[in-house]
């Protein structure tokens, strides 16, 4: 028996709309960028058409969440279910669906925790003006957020704006950046990122205006990068990797302006985004209430010098757009001290303690973990069980790290592991599973979509029941 977690700790679990819902065009929903990208892989792996079919199983799935003992459930609203073309008519059927989900959660004693945007921009806005590249997109998003605050804000008090803006912006497919010229692509990317910051600020302010007692935050993808060696250049590279991939984003949300090193990068690369009068005041006026972050693994970096052909700031693609290398800054390396998951994520509970301490020291805002988990190809045994002791080990290690960080003085409000049930992996369909509940389907065979509790379900249920003391 270990020491329990603080009273009222928010034990949760997470999902996102395009990964769990299915019903991709049901009741008037419009296509999204996430659907579009998943359809490109159709025929080879699962897509968002059915996913875990939460759209038709929500009652059953919420009953499972209650049985698990969840205090909070993090899920996202699909913008294109609420406003199918992104900026036109509101779809009453979309509002009705999320009303049902929210009411059922509350009836089961589970607090809804809503992300407004999880990789699924309405595709109509891409066709109209290439999505976030246009300034209008920020205002279309604000309008959608206002519709949600008015429709659900009487019952939903906890909100997240964008899921992983800082990671999404690094992945061309998610942003629909198709420009082949690297400099032009980076210029578009910087402009899109800036419009997302504007949208974030508009939405934070709208939440405070419209939702009584509402709390709102970004959900960033955290990074914790170790230097490959103790050469000062490698230490700088590791810091730069974190600053460039995460901290600039948190600083922008917190201070309302780009940090100096980031401005320098934008200037050196000649990609400073277009800003308009009044933006600076708007960005500074939006005050987030807490910080939410996702944590899966840590990174390692060495210094990558720039040269005549590769100017400072230019990205070097090695087939991995998320952990890209950047000339004059950093090169992604393998950490030989860590075990990696089958999919290459370097498993590192200590990194979570570091991140928790670092973010709390930097901003002194309460923290909540909105994703953490292990993606594996789970096996359903002949007697209908899933023995996922590896997932239990992974989560236990991270709970221990959280307990240590709280002893260090970090204010951690809750934990929402990814994912509540198996769902569509953002790149590996249903081969890579994260859930406490197995969904009986394969990539190309829908089977019966039966919900089967894994060993980790019973283990996490007991963790919650004992408030973390038995883990
Ligand atoms: C996070 C995303 O980055 O990682 C989730 O917010 C995603 O949407 C999760 O599913 C795990 O990544 P993947 O690629 O294994 O699904």
Number of strands: 15
What is the CATH level 1 assignment?
Answer: Alpha Beta
Strand order of the largest sheet: 1-2-3-4-5-7-12-13
Largest sheet report = 8 strands, parallel, barrel
Distance from N terminus to C terminus (CA atoms, Å) equals 8 Å
What do these coordinates show?
The N and C termini lie close together (8 Å). This protein has 471 residues and is α/β, with parallel strands linked by helices. The chain has helices at 17-20, 33-40, 54-68, 79-82, 92-107, 123-129, 136-152, 165-168, 172-175, 182-210, 232-255, 260-268, 279-285, 349-363, 389-407, 455-465; strands at residues 10-14, 72-76, 111-117, 158-163, 215-221, 225-227, 291-294, 299-303, 315-316, 325-326, 330-333, 367-371, 412-415, 437-439, 451-453. The longest helix is centred in the middle third of the chain and has 29 residues, at 182-210. Helix content is 41%, strand content 14%. The chain is globular and about 60 Å long. The strands form 4 sheets. It has an 8-stranded parallel barrel with strand order 1-2-3-4-5-7-12-13, surrounded by 5 helices. The chain has a 3-stranded mixed beta sheet with strand order 6-8-11. It has a two-stranded antiparallel sheet with strand order 9-10. The model has no long low-confidence stretch (mean pLDDT 96). The chain has one domain (10-465): Glycosidases (TIM Barrel), CATH 3.20.20.80. The site of 6-O-phosphono-beta-D-glucopyranose has 14 residues, from loops. 6-O-phosphono-beta-D-glucopyranose (BG6) binds at residues 16, 19, 163-164, 167, 221, 294, 371, 375, 418, 425-427, 432.
């Amino acid at each position: 028996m270990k020491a329990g977690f603080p009273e009222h700790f928010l034990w949760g679990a997470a999902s996102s709309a395009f990964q769990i819902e299915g019903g991709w065009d049901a009741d008037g929903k419009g296509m999204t960028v996430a659907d579009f990208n998943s359809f490109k892989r159709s025929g080879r792996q699962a897509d968002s058409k059915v996913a875990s079919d939460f759209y038709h199983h929500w009652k059953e799935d919420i009953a499972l969440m209650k049985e698990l003992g969840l205090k909070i459930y993090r899920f996202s609203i699909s913008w294109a279910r609420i406003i199918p073309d992104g900026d036109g008519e509101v779809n009453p059927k979309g509002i009705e669906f999320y009303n049902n989900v929210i009411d059922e959660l509350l009836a089961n004693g589970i607090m809804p925790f809503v992300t407004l945007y999880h990789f699924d921009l309405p595709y109509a806005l891409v066709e109209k003006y290439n999505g976030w590249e246009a300034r209008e997109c920020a205002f279309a998003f604000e309008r959608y957020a206002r519709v949600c605050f008015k429709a659900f804000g009487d019952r939903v008090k906890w909100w997240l704006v964008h899921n992983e803006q800082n990671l999404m912006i690094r992945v061309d497919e998610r942003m629909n950046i198709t420009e082949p010229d690297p400099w032009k692509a980076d210029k578009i990317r910087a402009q899109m990122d800036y419009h997302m910051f504007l949208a974030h600020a508009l939405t934070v302010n709208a939440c405070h205006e419209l939702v009584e007692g509402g709390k709102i935050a970004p959900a960033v993808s955290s990074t914790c990068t170790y230097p490959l060696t103790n050469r000062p250049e490698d230490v700088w590279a590791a810091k730069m990797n974190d600053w460039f991939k995460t901290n600039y984003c948190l600083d922008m949300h917190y201070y309302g302006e780009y940090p100096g090193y980031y401005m320098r990068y934008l200037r050196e690369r000649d990609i400073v985004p277009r800003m308009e009068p009044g933006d600076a005041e708007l960005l500074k006026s939006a005050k987030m209430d807490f910080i939410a972050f996702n944590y899966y693994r840590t990174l390692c970096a060495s210094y990558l010098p720039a040269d005549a052909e590769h100017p400072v700031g230019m990205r070097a693609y090695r087939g991995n757009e998320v952990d890209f290398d950047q000339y004059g800054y950093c090169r992604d390396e393998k950490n030989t001290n860590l075990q990696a998951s089958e999919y290459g994520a370097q498993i590192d509970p200590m990194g979570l303690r570091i991140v928790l301490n670092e973010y709390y020291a930097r901003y002194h805002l309460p923290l909540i973990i909105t994703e953490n988990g292990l993606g594996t190809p789970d096996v359903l045994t002949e007697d209908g069980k899933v023995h996922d002791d590896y997932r239990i080990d992974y989560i236990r290690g991270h709970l221990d790290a959280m307990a240590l960080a709280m002893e260090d003085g970090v204010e951690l409000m809750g934990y929402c592991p990814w994912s509540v049930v198996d769902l569509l992996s953002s790149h590996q369909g249903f081969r890579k599973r994260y859930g406490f509940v197995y969904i009986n389907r394969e990539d190309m065979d829908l089977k019966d979509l039966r919900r089967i509790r894994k060993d980790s379900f019973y283990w996490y249920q007991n963790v919650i029941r004992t408030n973390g003391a038995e883990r």
